[in-house]
């Protein structure tokens, strides 16, 4: 069971990754503590963790600010994700999946199929699809049984807009559908223990996500500024 500090850290991390704070925003202990209904102690611990992760910066006499990532930094994180998650799929395919892992992956695929089978993207489906995406990628990373891969991949995921927690829901049904079709191809290759194909497919899947981000980055920043103005 996560501690209070861990829960506060996860909440803050999600707020930053989902754009509730825009790059360069100043964040302070007291307002955050009041917003979450906790003392300053777990917030202070969360700030320390997020500083170590590189999500926020601390400057003497100026406090904490959300780190500004250039587009090049974000795309570099996608490159790292593609390599690491591709390797994870290769390793998982070589090891083979157990029945529980296969069942969980197939449930993820079914959940995504149900959402996208409506033929249009509904606002209320964004969060469930996003959670499905996180679950699927996490299962595949865990299935490789290499803790170093998981650790380094997590660092890449903790960069705004490079995380599997982020699904650019308004890019259109066809683009999201194409991405989910990738999920099917990747999972099938891993289940069939086709290691080389599983790695190549996952690399292409993450690369495609980076292309989508690159093509929409300017609009995303404008939206983020508008929401916080």
Keywords:
229 residues, mainly alpha, Arc Repressor Mutant, subunit A, 2 domains, 9 helices, 3 strands, globular, disordered C terminus
Task: Please tell me about this protein's structure.
This protein has 229 residues and is mainly alpha-helical. The chain has 2 domains: 4-66, Winged helix-like DNA-binding domain superfamily/Winged helix DNA-binding domain (Arc Repressor Mutant, subunit A, Orthogonal Bundle); 71-228, GntR ligand-binding domain-like (Four Helix Bundle (Hemerythrin (Met), subunit A), Up-down Bundle), CATH 1.20.120.530. Helices cover 70% and strands 4% of the residues. The protein has 9 helices and 3 strands, in the order αβααββαααααα. It has helices at residues 4-17, 29-36, 40-53, 71-95, 99-116, 126-143, 147-157, 173-191, 195-228; strands at residues 26-27, 56-59, 63-66. A 3-stranded antiparallel β-sheet has the order 1-3-2. A hairpin with a 3-residue loop joins β2 (56-59) and β3 (63-66). α5 (99-116) runs antiparallel to α8 (173-191). The longest helix is centred in the last third of the chain and has 34 residues, at 195-228. The chain is globular and about 55 Å long.
N to C succession of SSEs:
HEHHEEHHHHHH
What strand line-up does the widest sheet have? Answer: 1-3-2
Structural class estimated from helices and strands: mainly alpha
Average pLDDT level:
89
Distance between termini?
Answer: 37 Å
Beta-strand percentage range:
under 5%
- CATH class division of the largest domain: Mainly Alpha
Shape: globular
Percent helix: over 70%
Radius of gyration: 18 Å
CATH topology of the largest domain: Four Helix Bundle (Hemerythrin (Met), subunit A)
Largest beta-sheet details: 3 strands, antiparallel
Overall number of strands = 3
CATH superfamily of the largest domain, by name, is GntR ligand-binding domain-like
Number of helices: 9
Low-confidence parts = 225-229
- How many domains, as an integer? 2
Query: Would you identify the CATH architecture of the largest domain?
Result: Up-down Bundle
């Amino acid at each position: 069971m996560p501690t209070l500090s861990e829960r506060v850290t996860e909440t803050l991390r999600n707020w930053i990754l989902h754009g509730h704070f825009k790059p360069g925003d100043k964040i302070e202990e007291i307002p955050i503590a009041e917003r979450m209904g906790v003392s300053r102690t777990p917030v202070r611990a969360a700030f320390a963790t997020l500083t170590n992760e590189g999500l926020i910066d601390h400057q003497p006499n100026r406090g904490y600010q959300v780190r500004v990532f250039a587009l090049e930094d974000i795309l570099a994180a996608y490159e790292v994700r593609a390599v690491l998650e591709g390797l994870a799929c290769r390793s998982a395919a070589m090891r083979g999946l157990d029945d529980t892992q296969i069942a969980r992956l197939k449930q993820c695929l079914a959940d995504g199929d149900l959402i996208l089978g409506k033929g249009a993207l509904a606002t209320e489906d964004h969060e469930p699809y996003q959670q499905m995406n996180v679950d699927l990628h996490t299962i595949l990373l865990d299935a490789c049984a290499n803790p170093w891969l998981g650790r380094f991949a997590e660092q890449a995921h903790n960069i705004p807009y490079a995380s599997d927690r982020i699904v650019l829901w308004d890019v259109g049904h066809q683009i999201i559908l194409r991405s989910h079709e990738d999920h099917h191809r990747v999972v099938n290759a891993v289940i069939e223990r086709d290691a080389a194909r599983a790695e190549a497919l996952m690399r292409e899947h993450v690369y495609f996500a980076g292309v989508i981000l690159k093509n929409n980055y300017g609009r995303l920043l404008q939206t983020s500024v508008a929401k916080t103005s």
